[in-house]
TrEMBL record:
Molecular functions (GO terms): DNA binding
Domain HTH gntR-type: 13-80
PROSITE patterns recorded: HTH_GNTR
Keyword Secreted included in the entry's annotation: no
Organism in which the protein naturally occurs: Rossellomorea pakistanensis
Keyword Phosphoprotein in annotation: no
Pfam families to which the protein is assigned, alphabetical: FCD, GntR
Xref: CDD domains: WHTH_GntR
Protein name: DNA-binding GntR family transcriptional regulator
Gene3D superfamilies, alphabetized: GntR ligand-binding domain-like, Winged helix-like DNA-binding domain superfamily/Winged helix DNA-binding domain
Origin organism lineage: Bacteria, Bacillati, Bacillota, Bacilli, Bacillales
Keywords on record: DNA-binding, Transcription, Transcription regulation
Top-level division of the source organism's lineage: Bacteria
């Protein structure tokens, strides 16, 4: 189980949360490959913590679908099925739509302006072919909308699904296109017009369209 040594992690969080965040990141970006067996002693040594927070972090990652635990046998990273995009994006789209609907009446013009700046950076990344930067800008755009819904249950659910979306990106399932630029701007205009139904519809469409784009790309290959 190769573990990077040249990484940095925040120190002002609990050992369990630090372990969870770092291990999840390694699973998402493929540092820890699907089906790879995880050794809690090696992870503990690499992260400079005891085995207890590692085990607690692995339990949480198991609940969230990133690792499989086999009592008496061991723990391993879950497999990645590209077509899980069909299972992840529909519920995420519904939650994002609800967040947009709830945020519409209360989101400030200052926040909308900030979102417009993020969308501009997103557009630049798309045009440059920098898909990872585009993905991070897209994530920030939608995260701010979810935060403005002011509903921790939506926030928590979206956070888990979003982590799986990031993992799908690293396994070539998520494709970002120019269409998202216009859709983001349309969402912002719906916010400005206080049209919560349109904001919700556009937010859902923005996520669900990625399914069609995935299969269109599959046909090309």
């Amino acid at each position: 189980m190769p573990i990077p040594t040249n990484f940095s992690s925040p120190t002002r969080i609990s050992a369990k949360n630090r372990a969870f965040t770092q291990i999840q990141e390694w699973i998402i970006d493929g540092t820890l490959q699907p089906k790879e067996k995880l050794n809690d002693a090696d992870l503990a040594q690499a992260l400079g913590v005891s085995r207890t927070p590692i085990r607690e972090a692995l339990q949480l990652l198991h609940v969230q679908g990133f690792v499989e635990m086999f009592p008496g046998v061991g723990t391993q990273v879950t497999s990645v099925n590209q077509e899980d995009i069909n299972k992840i994006l529909p519920p995420l789209g519904v939650l994002q739509a609800l967040a947009a609907e709830l945020a519409t009446p209360i989101i400030s013009q200052e926040t909308i302006d900030s979102l417009r700046e993020i969308n501009s950076k997103f557009a630049d990344a798309i045009k440059k072919g920098d898909s990872y930067s585009a993905l991070k800008q897209d994530e920030q755009f939608h995260t701010i909308i979810v935060e403005n819904a002011q509903n921790k249950y939506i926030t928590n659910s979206v956070s888990n699904l979003q982590a799986h979306v990031l993992r799908l990106y690293f396994h070539q399932s998520i494709i970002l296109t120019n269409d998202s630029i216009q859709e983001h701007e349309a969402i912002l205009q719906a916010f400005e017009n206080k049209n919560n139904e349109k904001a919700a519809s556009l937010a859902r469409k923005n996520w669900i369209r990625a399914i069609d784009e995935f299969y269109a790309e599959q046909k090309k290959n």
